[in-house]
Amino acid sequence: MSHLDHTAFVNSRRDERGVGHHTLRAYAQDLRTFARFTQIHRLSDPLSKDDILAYHRHLRDELKAKPATIERRLVTLKSYFAWRADRNSALPSPFTGVRASARIPRRLPRPIERETLKAVLESEAEPTSARPAHSAIATDQEATILIIKLLIVTGLRISELTNLKIRDVSTDAAQMIVRGKGNKERIVFVPNAELQEVFRQYCTFRATHSSRKSPLFLNAVGRRLRSQTFRKRLRVLSDRLGIAPHLTPHRFRHSAATLLIEEGTDIRMVQALLGHANLRTTEIYVRVSNTALRSALERADILNVQRN
């Protein structure tokens, strides 16, 4: 598998399907791992079904890769060979007839407990809403709390939020145009009036200092805030508040979905909010809510209450 093929495949996923940066990086990493395997074992085209099964064993037994990692690398490889076969019929996919599964255990997402959420929201110093729109830009801590609040009420992926441009937010900051997986656009609403006002002031300040095409959220040196930088901020905040396991952007997304379902929001509305292509992806949050219900019933223990 040549470097040119590897690069061309990744570029095609970006250009033809609008695949995001993180997914493209994962594709490249998966293909590099397989390329090393072919070099070590001196494999060459045409590859066979046995070569793929040997690679599966290599990932599982030698690299001790996790089931989710194995599954992802096999899916990437299968997509690559299908793409290559489509371009060159003389190189059929070695995945024909292969049934290699890593048997990924389905894990429930871990939302953040309500008490922890309360502690996080109360951790801000000076409320941003008290700052006039013409004053200095919010501190990193204030911007972090603003982003956290937006994650909680919108269920956005952190990449969707950090990729926002000033022009993507409405004048009243009540809604925004978000680009999700596959570069699909959707409208996301900001339902809380107080948060809307804080967000509006922040957006107004950014609009008076930058063009509408500029990134909405900035890092400490005035460039676009990246997802990884925000994750580091959450780790610092977690350490300061003594929160373990530490906060992550995706846990806020899980919390948004779980809280909405617990409050009776229709699952299809939650699906639209989260930008899930398949309802089955959203249904896992119903299971989370059922788990919360069971825990609440066990804590209440009605029969024991009646005995006392």
TrEMBL record:
Q: Which domain of life is it from?
A: Bacteria
Family matches, as Pfam families: Phage_int_SAM_1, Phage_integrase
Membrane-spanning residues: none
Question: Which regions form coiled coils?
Answer: none
Keywords, A to Z, come to: DNA integration, DNA recombination, DNA-binding, Plasmid
InterPro entries listed in its UniProt record = CB (IPR044068), DNA_brk_join_enz (IPR011010), Integrase-like_cat_sf (IPR013762), Integrase_catalytic (IPR002104), Integrase_recombinase_N (IPR010998), Integrase_SAM-like_N (IPR004107), Tyrosine_recombinase_XerCD (IPR050090)
SUPFAM superfamilies assigned: DNA breaking-rejoining enzymes
The Tyr recombinase domain extends over 107-298
Which intervals hold domain Core-binding (CB)? 1-85
Looking at the keywords, is DNA-binding present?
yes
Record family assignment: Belongs to the 'phage' integrase family.
The protein's matches in PANTHER family, at most eight in alphabetical order, are given as: INTEGRASE_RECOMBINASE PROTEIN MJ0367-RELATED, PHAGE INTEGRASE-RELATED
Name of the protein this chain belongs to? Tyrosine-type recombinase/integrase
- Its source organism is Roseovarius rhodophyticola
